[in-house]
């Protein structure tokens, strides 16, 4: 059977892997591993992003005194991640497939050098037929340095590793066009560019998840805009992964249609680096209009009205339009002092060159 994709990222949410009582659902894990093994053997390269550390650690330790949320997360994830990876290791070993653990933090993607280092690590694993199993290093990533959730992490990995698809497995069949519990609502099968979904998404989260459906849809849109198909499907359904790849038409899920305009590797990094922005570049109305057109343009000093924050050359900055809305992210070509001096002047070098500018 011909498959549409040859390299995919699969994200498995906490709820897929845990039973109602919070214990690790080894039967479900085993079923998913069997499917990943089948795809792997048919030649598909797979990167697994698996949540579940905190959820699986919770049932293992019973603290004597009440712990705050940070202590809880650190304790449960330290115990739970060991348990989780151990299970994966054993389950994949039955298929003779080696797996490797990649624990990462948001900071590990902060500079281009760090980013490429992470990319190299996973590339060498794939080249050696090892399936990377990625999770956030919850023991050391705290508050503002955390990913919103593993949906954000999985988007970053899919983008960094140039996968053709990102499959997000949750405990629901896809995005519903209303409350999932309302019998009149149904799963939206395809989502094209620019579709606003905010009216459909409820703020309720599944019991063990972190970000909820809203982060899933935001990430999905961003990743699809970079040319990667994103699929949200139910990881609790039997054979879901194999069906999604081998019988895409008949398998219930929400599919984000990818943009057909390729995005360069460095722009993908910039697109996912917003959290590291050191400053803001505010542009005037004329520059905003040119940026919104189809033309490939750089941010020139003549179009800048003011600059906020202090940055060094090669730092990441936010690009704000004349109304103060963020319209993009870019890597600066000079420091903030030089940029300040050039504001409004003709014939100066771009502050952000087009090649390092990601427009949202
Ligand atoms: N319109 C919607 N369609 C589908 N699910 C929704 C919608 N609005 C809110 N949700 C909720 O989002 C949950 C999935 O997100 P989340 O809890 O983050 O899962 P995961 O643990 O898999 O990351 C669903 O269980 C559902 O309760
Ligand atoms: N790193 C955490 C993941 C938390 C998280 O994002 O969970 P989910 O929303 O279920 O993907 C863990 O392993 O428990």
UniProtKB/TrEMBL annotation:
Domain PUA: 279-352
Pathway(s): Amino-acid biosynthesis; L-proline biosynthesis; L-glutamate 5-semialdehyde from L-glutamate: step 1/2
Signal peptide: none
GO terms of molecular function: ATP binding; glutamate 5-kinase activity; RNA binding
EC number: 2.7.2.11
GO cellular component: cytosol
Function description: Catalyzes the transfer of a phosphate group to glutamate to form L-glutamate 5-phosphate.
Similarity comment text for this entry: Belongs to the glutamate 5-kinase family.
Protein name as catalogued: Glutamate 5-kinase
Organism: Bacteroides ovatus
Gene of this entry: proB
